[in-house]
């Protein structure tokens, strides 16, 4: 009997580790997704982006400080804002070079709507946060951008310095969650500037080299039938790419 109990405990612990630890409250996630104030355009994206699964994996809780790297137009910002609540804060970061692409999307998302969101415009290697300020740092569909130079504007940040910044702004025990389009195993990092993909192993190596500990992954957005040689904006793969989702933890 004792052996069976120990075996069951070990299996449960293994499952918890594989999922990256404790996730967000399912009821809170469902409420955030169903919020009537949420834009209809966001809701239309839910089937392909699977936010309920992603948010549960991230583990956002009320009162947290969440630093959202490369927030784009704010699809996830909206949800993070609801989940951290009035006592929490979300930093919505995009490089200044993205202004032309984003237009008025950021002020339309935030101004007069999301009072716990602070907008930040810096490159990835100069994050606008104090040491140990963030419970969570997210980078959704973004690490490949380090190898992309939009409109000839130059690099969006030094690779090593960027991961050092992520480590710096995380609290001890805080987590870094990263999601991106996968390149084929063994692909050079330069695919980030061409097909807008990156080999997951490169991200894992850079994060661990910076001092973070790999804490789990989710296969909810994996697609082994993806054509890795095709750019992510090609109609044949757009919004259907193979996407990896990793979680790392800063040592306590």
UniProtKB/TrEMBL annotation:
Residues 1-20 form the signal peptide. Keywords: Signal. It comes from the Bacteria. It holds the Pfam family Ubie_methyltran. SUPFAM superfamilies: S-adenosyl-L-methionine-dependent methyltransferases. This is Methyltransferase domain-containing protein. It comes from Hyphococcus flavus.
């Amino acid at each position: 009997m004792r052996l069976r109990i120990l075996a069951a405990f070990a299996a449960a612990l293994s499952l918890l580790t594989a999922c990256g630890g404790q996730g967000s409250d399912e009821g809170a996630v469902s409420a955030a997704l169903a919020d009537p104030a949420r834009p209809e355009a966001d809701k239309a994206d839910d089937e392909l982006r699977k936010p309920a699964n992603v948010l549960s994996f991230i583990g956002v809780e009320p009162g947290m400080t969440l630093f959202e790297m490369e927030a784009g137009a704010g699809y996830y910002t909206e949800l993070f804002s609801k989940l951290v609540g009035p006592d929490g804060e979300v930093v919505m970061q995009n490089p200044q070079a993205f202004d032309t692409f984003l237009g008025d999307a950021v002020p339309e998302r935030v101004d007069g709507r999301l009072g716990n969101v602070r907008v930040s415009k810096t490159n990835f290697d100069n994050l606008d946060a104090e040491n140990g300020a963030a419970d969570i740092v997210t980078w959704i569909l973004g690490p490949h951008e380090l190898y992309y130079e939009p409109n000839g504007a130059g690099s969006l940040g030094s690779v090593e310095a960027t991961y050092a910044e992520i480590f710096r702004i995380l609290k001890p025990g805080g987590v870094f969650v990263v999601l991106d389009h996968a390149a084929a195993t063994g692909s050079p990092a330069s695919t980030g500037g061409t097909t807008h993909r990156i080999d997951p192993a490169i991200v894992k190596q850079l994060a661990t080299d910076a001092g973070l500990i790999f804490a789990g992954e989710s296969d909810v957005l994996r697609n082994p039938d993806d054509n890795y040689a095709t750019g992510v904006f090609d109609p044949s793969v757009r919004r259907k790419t193979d996407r990896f989702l990793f979680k790392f933890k800063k040592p306590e």
